[in-house]
Description:
The protein is an alpha/beta fold and about 300 residues long. The protein has 6 helices and 17 strands. β8 (about 115-120) and β9 (about 125-130) form a beta hairpin. The radius of gyration is 20 Å and the shape is globular.
Amino acid sequence: MQEIFAPATITNLTVVDPNEIRNVEFTLPREYEVGGKFYPIVDEMRPGTAFLAKPFGTRTGRQRRRMYTRSNSSINAKGVLQTIINDTHAEKADTSVWWQTDDVTAFQSAGATIPILMNFARAGTALIPYEHCLAIEASNLRLEPDDEWPSMRFLGIAFSTGITPFLAHIRYMKALNFGRNSVCIGAHYRMVVSVENHRQLMEHTELQETAAKFPQNFSYHPILTREWPHDWGYGRGRVMKVVEQCNGKELIDLEPLLAIVPDIQNEHVRLCGSKEACWQLTEGLEQAGLQTRSFRAEAW
Ligand SMILES: Cc1cc2nc3c(=O)[nH]c(=O)nc-3n(C[C@H](O)[C@H](O)[C@H](O)COP(=O)(O)OP(=O)(O)OC[C@H]3O[C@@H](n4cnc5c(N)ncnc54)[C@H](O)[C@@H]3O)c2cc1C
């Protein structure tokens, strides 16, 4: 069957760190024509999932298929897909470079569109954005069902733009008062964010405000690894350190992370970052003989 791509307009584009990280917002049309018939676009994307877009590649000069995790919540922004994209600096980096260029700004000014993959839903009567995962698995960060997460304690660990799925979780939970009601104290979400420097902090003020507004449900621990302002009041350095031993074996030092979350055994741990970061955490927990309530991680 032929794939359906709806044209999305870039409705917001902001620089987080020049030439490195940008916030990108796509707005989908309300309806889209397929085979001479108009279908409404229904947006019920689950927090923690990614959509598929076709941006351009600077290296190849061609349109490429790439996935981006949504950073906002469909609950209060129907049809508006936000994400955060970084330049990977990988040898063959292509689209991630393009997103940081003036080409994209020109694209936005001209009202040019980016194709976003759709699927048919509701017995073929509507279109929905494609989601990269439909079931909860250890290797993805799709949020647990609404009758489960309000009674869970989460520890989210994000490396750089790995914050995107967690922003979607937190914004969704916040819209639902973190699941607090007369009988339930709601979910607890502890968010650890690791970035190189102050410029790369994403939605820092919003996360600080959420922590101040929901002190019983949310706490925020940003950590700067390479440089920090003199008055930086949060963490510095790496949350996990690899220590090379005399015998050549690598020991993973989790002390900085455990200083933030000493009761890690009680947490449902979620991580988004590189494959190496996932390996370091699982290996470090194993070496320390620590078992968490659950562990799910997504690496790009
Ligand atoms: C589920 C998911 C969610 C994501 N969410 C985000 C997000 O929110 N923000 C973000 O910045 N990035 C995200 N990414 C990563 C993003 O999709 C891109 O991979 C990243 O931006 C790098 O793009 P790139 O074009 O520069 O390079 P790459 O995608 O790394 O590609 C570089 C080159 O290598 C080739 N290549 C890549 N993989 C293979 C392969 N397996 N085999 C052979 N050739 C290959 C490509 O064709 C390309 O020419 C996500 C990825 C996934 C899978």
